[in-house]
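ESCALATION

Customer reports they have been waiting on this structure for their group meeting. Please prioritize. Original submission:
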Amino acid sequence: MDQELIRKIEHYINEKQLFAPGEKIVAAVSGGPDSVALLHILHRIKVRYGWSLSAAHVNHGLRGEESDEDEAYVERLCAELDIPFLVRRVQVKSQLDLYGRNVQAAARALRFQSLHEMAQAQGTTTVALGHHGDDQAETVLMRLLRGTSPGGLGGIRPTAYVNGMKLARPLLAVTKRELEQYIEIQGIEARFDSSNASRKYFRNVIRLDILPYLLKHQSGAAESLRRIAEMSAAEDDYLDAAAEERAAGIVQVEDGIVYAEREQFASAHIALQRRMIKIILNRLNLADEGIDFGKIERIREAIVADEPTTISLRVHETVEFRRIYDRLEWAPAEESEPEPYVLELDVSRDGSIELPGGMNARLEWKRIVLPKGERFSPIQNDSYSAWFDAEALGADCIVRSRRPGDRIATIGLNGTQKVKDMFIDGKLPRRRRDSWPLVTDRSGELLWVPGFRRSRGALVTGSTEVALVMTMRIGDNNMT
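Update from on-call: job pushed to the front of the queue and completed.
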């Protein structure tokens, strides 16, 4: 059985041209059965192809002694196989703020960075990963449930390039069960990552609950998902090539500005339009910057629509799309220092005001008489709306831009919080921080930072007779 598995993997490596003869390969080895089987199989066939093989382990330090035991296990395995052992220890928890407190995102970023460094130390950029056919099925199913483009159905690709590093996946043609049987035959006892049993991660829910349930009712479900990935990847590659060819004829770059003629762009098939936009954003190094389908579609619709003939859309903090009649431009966003502002609001009656600073946003307010004799507590689910006691607030208040040292006495917290820190933690783009509105009372006490926090001042209580509801509305042309 082990020879049959090796032949299958070897055929896949050659078919997909994953490695060249004599290539230096660094295998990423966590200590689990998948990566251990990967290392062992590559070790057995490396002489045939003249490969130089080493193993790289990243200790994330998330499971205490268990993580250290994984590292020690991989080191012993490498010693037994006489394979160079490389290791990096990373501090995931100390980096969480950079990744929105997302443990998985932080661990993944630090893992790839470490693998890249270890590969470079070995004089290569090629890293082999242990993703297998079951991982492929889970990925396709997960993307289907979350919503994905046709390209996303291509799932995990045999090879991918990340920041100059080639990631190769030789095991996509085999199942997890085949790999487990292989290491059993070899008498290898791999490690088990306890976090793989936690259902707080969506992928684990797919793996432990949803996919097994589907397999009970449709035994070939996993294989069907793998076939979908194979077909979708091939068709996606074909459409990408067609879009590249079309874009080459109509997209030009001049002085750092990417531009095209609208008629040539709009005459392409809708599928190619979307892909050409992605190609352009990729050229502007925005492929991995959260440019989702919604943003691509808004650009495409602005291109093909008859009206308006001039429009500007902020695609990213650093890039702006502009349609100027029949000319399309993707250019560096024009940055200018926003002017500080202080606006007095008459809140004795309903009203609204356009906010300065080029935000395309309005602040609206409305007075509401509350039912007498009834205790009223507003539901505050929307951070862009706030309720105030109109009497406590007075006949007027102020909306202004931020100032150095601004702090707010946030509801539910002792003391005060810096507005600057609030903006940073909330990932408000730097270009918008100096023009973002802050609402204060006449004395200057900060009451509300729209989209962020409400203070303890002028709260609606059981004795409030008239409430003032204030709402910030942001226009459609501000994409970040």
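Sent to customer with the following note: The chain has three domains: 2-230, 251-332, 342-474.
Escalation resolved.
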